[in-house]
Amino acid sequence: MKARNRSIRQVALINIAANILLVVFKMLAGLLSNSVAIILGAINNLSDALSSIITLIGAKLSERKPDRKHPFGYGRIEYLVTFLVAGIVLYAGINSMQEAIARIITPESTTYDFTSLLIVSVSIVAKMVLGTFTIKRGKRLGADALVGSGIESRYDAVVSAATLASAGVYLAGGISLDGWVGAIISLLIIKAGFDILREAVSKTLGERAEAQLSQAVRTTINQIDGVHGAYDLALYDHGPGAIDGCVHVEVDDTMTAAHMDAISRRIRKEVYEKQHVHLLAVGIYSTNTQSSKASEIRTGIADIIAQFPHVHDLHGFYLNEETETVSFDVVIGFDDKDRYATFNEICRQAAQKYPHYEFNATLDVDATD
Question: Which of 172, 184, 192, 291 is spaced 20 to 30 Å from 42 by Cα?
């Protein structure tokens, strides 16, 4: 985690230095040419620098160790920081739009010279390179704030290209598009702000774990001797690089408590070593090994479930012949219009098919792939 945050700081410092230089030169070019589009570009670069500073602060705060009040650490601070980045971008976009509209209503003459056009041209290349670099590093480090900064940098390159094009139109035909280009720039900035905000909201609410990670965790568990299947896997994101979870596994009903304990500890150890996921709990499902009746009823329940296309899985099946109780779990996908109605119908048909048994069924959450 420390190495990751050190890398984030390095990328953020590069962004800050580059954007401050661009602010100085683009503001100079904007004042020399009296171009609102170039001046707005400079203001946008200033917002980029502020975003990078906030990213730095967030990376530092996220390093705080877990404590009694926050036992899972402070990693989610990075997601909160992304809200601030989005706010800065939106503020810059809205203010830029006001300036652009004022220029459209009250046009002013612009005077483009070689120096101002050269500065804009250099800024296009610089922001495209900086944006590509920042996005790649942000994705590699799992830092959404950096990815957001990189996306905004690419928008800046597009914005500067539009500014350069409008200057060409003005020099060639005397038609001033400065205010209109400024409005387009502002719209792009506002869109970027909303995109960053939407991503931050989704992360804060809690997203479905990446399929590659959840499948890798299941593979690791299923390769352990004595485990017949891994189910009910839930993964909780407490910030980049801080993922906790829990899972159920099926084992033989003849297995001793000591053997279950050994398997549980091995599962937690291997998943952490291979996928860097801390499993907080490993639950146990008992599987019938000496009951032909259990196999018959399980097949019957599976036939019932086959009628419903949105049921993804049947697991945790166990028949207690002494109490005549049947337990099982079903996973019904969120694409089912009424998951609870489907679940109740499955239970009704099961009870009707096997009236001498009591059913203890559970509707599981379709949390991971």
Answer: 172
